[in-house]
């Protein structure tokens, strides 16, 4: 396993920054109905995502910043696609709200954990699987929008990925909620008691 460094300027991090810069381009293309070009941007993003992971592991350039940027780019691409599709009426707004509400809940849980002295919870495999389902749903739905002849096949498959992704997304969210409740209930040593012990 590669050692995690605190370096900022690495090839994988540059590729991750490029992915982040592609997010607003992707959003504008989707809102504008340019699904073919949006799909191309998503393919480029996926290639850079694969390359930055391979380079980071092979050349020992795994960094703390990269571990943050990589999932952030994935989430932002999903968010941008949801916004674009909701604006165009491809997906209902309630679906967008359901997905975003789970991320808001995780943000609140993270703040609650930090207030009790705990860092971020480890990523659960359900969360990874949910993100993967949602991420793969995007190009499939875009194929249905960009190529009407393929819509009869692409749309049902894309929606199957979306619905399973949402289900797993919230299942993982409930797991995170249970973990957070468990850790904040762990009794902590009282500062006053520690002070009395030191002074005795």
Describe the model.
With about 200 residues, the protein is mainly α. It has two domains: about 1-90, no CATH class; about 90-185, no CATH class. Helix content is about 80%, strand content about 0%. It is globular, with a radius of gyration of 20 Å. The mean pLDDT is about 85.
List keywords for this structure.
single chain, 200 residues, mainly alpha, 2 domains
Mean pLDDT: 85
How far do the termini sit from each other?
47 Å
The whole-angstrom Rg is 20 Å
Q: Report the uncertain regions.
A: none
Q: Main sheet, how many strands, which sense, barrel?
A: none
- Please tally the helical runs, counting DSSP H or I stretches of 4 or more residues: 7
Q: Which structural category do the helix and sheet elements fall into?
A: mainly alpha
β-sheet strand percentage: under 5%
Topology:
Layout lengths: L10 H21 L3 H24 L5 H25 L4 H23 L9 H22 L4 H34 L6 H9 L1
Helix pairs in contact: 1-2, 1-3, 2-5, 3-4, 3-5, 4-6, 5-6
In short:
This protein is mainly alpha-helical and 200 residues long.
């Amino acid at each position: 396993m590669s050692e995690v460094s605190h370096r900022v300027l690495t090839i994988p991090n540059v590729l991750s920054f490029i992915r982040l810069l592609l997010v607003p381009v992707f959003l504008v293309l989707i809102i504008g109905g340019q699904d073919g070009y949006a799909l191309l941007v998503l393919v480029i993003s996926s290639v850079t995502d694969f390359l930055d992971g391979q380079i980071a592991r092979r050349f020992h350039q795994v960094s703390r910043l990269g571990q943050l940027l990589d999932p952030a780019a994935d989430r932002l691409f999903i968010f941008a696609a949801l916004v674009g599709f909701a604006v165009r009426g491809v997906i209902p707004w309630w679906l967008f709200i359901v997905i975003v509400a789970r991320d808001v809940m995780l943000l609140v849980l993270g703040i609650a954990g930090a207030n009790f002295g705990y860092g971020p919870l480890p990523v659960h495999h359900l969360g990874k699987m949910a993100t993967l389902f949602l991420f793969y749903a995007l190009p499939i739905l875009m194929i249905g929008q960009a190529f009407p002849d393929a819509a009869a096949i692409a749309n049902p498959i894309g929606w199957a990925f979306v619905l399973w992704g949402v289900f797993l997304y919230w299942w993982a969210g409930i797991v995170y909620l249970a973990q957070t409740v468990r850790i904040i209930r762990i009794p902590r040593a009282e500062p006053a008691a520690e002070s009395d012990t030191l002074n005795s």
